[in-house]
Amino acid sequence: MSFSIFFHDNEKQVEETNLHYLERDSDSLAQQLDVKFQDSLDYLKNMAFIFEDSTIEELDEMQSLFETMSKDAPFDEAYFIYSDGNTWDLFGEKVDLSEREYFKEAMKGKEGISEPFMSPLISREIFICYVPVRSENGIQAVLSGIYYRETLEALLQSAYLGDGGYAGLVAADGCILAGSNTGLNGKDLFEGLEARQIIGDTSLEEARADMKAGRAGLLSYEGAVASSLVMYRPLSQNSWYLVQNLPSSVLNDMESAVSKSAVSLAIGLTVSFVALFAGIYLWLRMRHSDLYVENQRVKAIVDASYSLIFEFDQSGEAVAWYGDAGKVFDIENGALTEYIHPEDLTLFTEQMKELKEGKLGERELRIRTRERIYHWCGSRLIAMRNPGGKLIRILGIIRDIDDHKQKELSLADERDLFAEAIHMLGDTYYKILVLNLETGRYRFIRKEYAEAPEIRKARQEYSSCDSYSFWYDRMAESMIHPDYLDAFEKKLSLDSIRKSVADNTDRHSVIYKRRGPVEGEYKWAQTEWIPCEGGEEVILYVKDITDERIAEENHRRELERAFEEVKRANRVKTEFLEHISHDLRTPMNAIMGMNEMTYRAAQEKDFDKISYYTGRVRLTAEYLTLLLADLVDVSHMQKLGLELVCESFDMGILLIACREFFQYVSKEKHVSFRTEGCLSGMYVGDYRRLKQLVFNLIENAVKFNKPGGSVLLRVRTEAETDCRDRFFFEIKDTGIGMDEEQLGKLFQPFDRGEHIVSETFAGTGLGLFIAKNIVDAMGGEIQVILTDIMMPEMDGYALAERIRELSRKDSGTVRIVALTASSVTVTEEKVLACGINEILDKPFDVKKFNQLIRG
Question: Quick one: which of 218, 421, 613, 729 could link to 598 by a disulfide (CB 3.0–4.6 Å)?
Fold first, then answer.
């Protein structure tokens, strides 16, 4: 510290002058602290920069070189910390620093200076300067420089303090980090001033606000003995402050101290000058030897770094070049701007501007090589200033990073493609995360999910929310349906995934139910995971498959319904074959029987019987013809539809045909048949189809009736136009009726109404299907009116069982012969079980029947 000598007549001028020198002293001390901190960080940055570009690949070799070079570093001690947080103390013992905040910050790529803390390495209060060492694979190490707290305290004690004065390094919140009075370390600056009377223009609250805002200021207060002045100035590092607290007595003593020192100085200068000159000479000789050794060390480092190091002035003119890497670039003399790619000149200009503002200028520029092509280079500029702070030269470091940059650009393209792929996958997978199998931690790939409210809330509540086990436990406890917990654990627990990767299992998938947004609701989810190359990480994809599962379930049900329909269709076809066999054999049996009876009548020359039997043969043959026509019509309708034929016919003939045919058929069934109304006149239409329609409806009414029942055909006509009439045919019977299920299948082909049809009501099941198609083709309507459901008569099996159960003596020995037209479904076991002795198929042979009766 230096003082100029003044003699003043006015006391106020003396005070203002001394305050001026105090401000100069404070500025000088603040600059020393800023330079000390910045030099430390720059030293570590340059070392890291050299390591990043060097050919040194072994971390142990890098550690050894760092410790050797750090012997002349500006800090007290230096430590090389590996990326896992391990380093070694002075006794060779390994120390884990992975939980230190400064190490975590460095592993994020940040650099800085920590607040003081007790070091486990050296058992002292220290400040840590830290800088990461980067590589293509991320952060590979951390370089750290240590300042003892007492080192900074000694620097603060060098200020002009006098008796009762104080200088300290203070955080923006007022906490004293280090000071000339060690007893105040760790205390709050403002708490000590709250009990004092503030007498200046600045209040205590304003001083607090100044320090939070990074502003300098003065604060005056009345002390226990005299008034004092507090001066606070911001530093460039960490929003820290230099604070000096000086009593007024120190300020007043400054002038007398200066005057006395002036007299002594005049005497001492003469005596000391010779001794000083001799000392300087000896020091320079010693320093020359040290500088030579240092120069050899620096030269070895520069040559090994493959960096081009140079000096140039503020105009950009190169002064000196160092390092063999200069042979690569087309640089000899002249301005550096001549070799920079034109598109990057603006970046270089910005870099120079930042440097003059006191910042460390770093850029990536393209610089021309001797092959007349441009290479990407990392450029770092460092200001070289004189003791007064004036910029005199600029030190530059250029390293060829073209290979690295090309890979980076290629990776950027791959990242863009990857991001696009992730975006596309986002339509399918709502959650994608990467799990590190070594650390057990995970990260989300989709940023929007990582920033979701529930995730941010979990981060606030739980420090371990990025732990995969934490996520898995929360899912298992509160989200997964109990029925799927076992499958979830077997596939997705951390141990299960690690084991599967160790067993070289390529892919895994598990489907489960998880809670939905609505209380009590569960959604279907699927989680898939695949291992990344190297096996250290796996990627998990989670998607909602609720819609897919619902669609699959609906499809399964559709298949089941279709399968049931196929089964029903097969069953209907089987029954159709059985019943068509019955319907064909029954009239054939009647024809054969009537022919036999006609033959006997002919022998007896009974012409009445011959006429009767031949008439029945004709009607039966007509019925058989209609039945065969139905079969042919159904096949034709299903393939080509129904075509109507227009021809002239007499409507009265239709009613006569109905009476003649069904009076005979109904008599055989012991059912009465009658008609109401009359039809007459000539019409144009399809008579055959109309007859087929009416016959089918009446046939069903007769067939599904009971002995003693009745069938009524009621007809009437309404004129629609002058040349068009509408006919109404109403068939009413006392049959067994239909339920709702049978009514729904009424007009389906081959359907005969399950559970109500026995051999008593055999038929093809085609009548109503054909009738509905004819009515639709003629533009009419067909309706069904329910009647009371009646059980059909007892079938042959039940009758045989009832006979065997009678109390008569011959009930067990009487011979029972069953006549059936459905031999397909008759089995020996079924026949024997009910007590039937013999079965005859329709049509049966009369001679064989007579033999059974006689036998």
Answer: 613
Q: What pLDDT is attached to residue 129?
A: 92
Q: First CA to last CA across the chain, in angstroms?
A: 151
Q: Could you write out the three-class secondary structure of 61-120?
A: HHHHHHHHHHHHCCCCEEEEEECCCEEECCCCCEEECCCCHHHHHHHCCCCEECCCEECC
* Distance of alpha carbon 127 from alpha carbon 332, whole angstroms: 43
Indicate whether this model's pTM tops 0.90: no
Number of DSSP helices (H) and strands (E) in the chain, helices first: 23, 30
Instruction: Kindly state the helix (H) or strand (E) to which residue 538 belongs, with its residue range.
Output: strand 537-544
Place of tokens 């940040």: 110
**Residue 186: left if φ>0, alpha if ψ -120 to 50, beta else—which one?**
left
CA distance 706 to 793: 8
142 sits in which H/E element: strand 138-148
Residue 663: what pLDDT?
85
Q: What amino acid occupies position 181?
A: N
Looking at residue 410, what is its pLDDT? 78
Tell which phi-psi region holds residue 82, choosing left (phi > 0), alpha (psi between -120 and 50) or beta.
beta
DSSP state of 440: -
Q: Where are the alpha helices (DSSP H) in 649-780?
A: 651-668, 687-703, 740-744, 767-777
What is the Cα–Cα distance from 411 to 713, expressed in whole angstroms?
A: 90
Flag residues of the chain having pLDDT under 50.
Answer: 1-11, 14, 254-255, 257-274, 461-464, 754-762, 786, 788-791
- Chain mean position to CA 479: 16
The pLDDT value given to residue 104: 92
Task: State the SS3 of 699-735.
Answer: HHHHHCCCCCCEEEEEEEEEEEECCEEEEEEEEEECC
In whole angstroms, what is the distance from residue 507 CA to residue 503 CA? 11
Helix (H) or strand (E) run with residue 547 in it: helix 546-603
Check residue 477 and give its pLDDT. Answer: 84
Cα(786)–Cα(278) distance, integer angstroms: 137
Task: Return the sign of the alpha-carbon dihedral for residues 368, 369, 374, 375.
Answer: negative
Amino acid at 231: M
Burial class from Cβ neighbours inside 10 Å (0-12, 13-18, 19+) for residue 219 reads: buried
What six digits make up the tokens of 418? Answer: 């990857």
Burial grade of 713 (CB within 10 A; 0-12, 13-18, 19 or more): buried
Q: Are 242 and 169 in contact (CB under 8 A)?
A: yes
CB 805 within 8 A of CB 797: no
- In angstroms, rounded to a whole number, what is the distance separating the alpha carbons of residues 142 and 133? 6
Chain mean position to CA 592: 80
The one-letter amino acid code at 431 reads K
What pLDDT score does 1 carry?
32
Q: Strand 431-436 vs strand 442-444: parallel, antiparallel, or unpaired?
A: antiparallel
HSE, side-chain direction, 13 A CA sphere, residue 56: 26
Dihedral angle sign, alpha carbons of residues 470, 475, 477, 483: negative
